[in-house]
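Renewal narrative, Specific Aim 1. Our central claim is that a sequence can be written position by position from structural information alone. The example that follows is taken directly from our test logs and has not been curated for this report. It begins with the structure tokens describing the chain, in the order in which they were read.
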């Protein structure tokens, strides 16, 4: 339940809230991030969900509207 919902929300945010295509792309990227992280660091396999959410935070630091989000919707930071 809850973890699946959080991942779906994270995928939508990563892709861009206003974009269905972006949400699908965000889901693929999050899944790919989990698989690559576990492949590169097998001893940290129990933390695969953490890798996905850390990647989400990293992307949103540089692109707050998501990958395919509409930049016109972004408010000024200050």
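The sequence written for that structure reads:
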């Amino acid at each position: 339940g809850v973890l699946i919902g959080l991942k779906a929300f994270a995928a939508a945010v990563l892709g861009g809230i206003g974009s269905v295509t972006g949400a699908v792309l965000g889901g693929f990227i999050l899944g790919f991030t989990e698989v690559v992280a576990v492949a590169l660091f097998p001893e940290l396999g129990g933390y695969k969900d953490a890798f996905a959410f850390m990647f989400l935070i990293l992307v949103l630091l540089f692109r707050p509207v998501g990958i395919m989000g509409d930049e016109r919707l972004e408010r000024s930071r200050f």
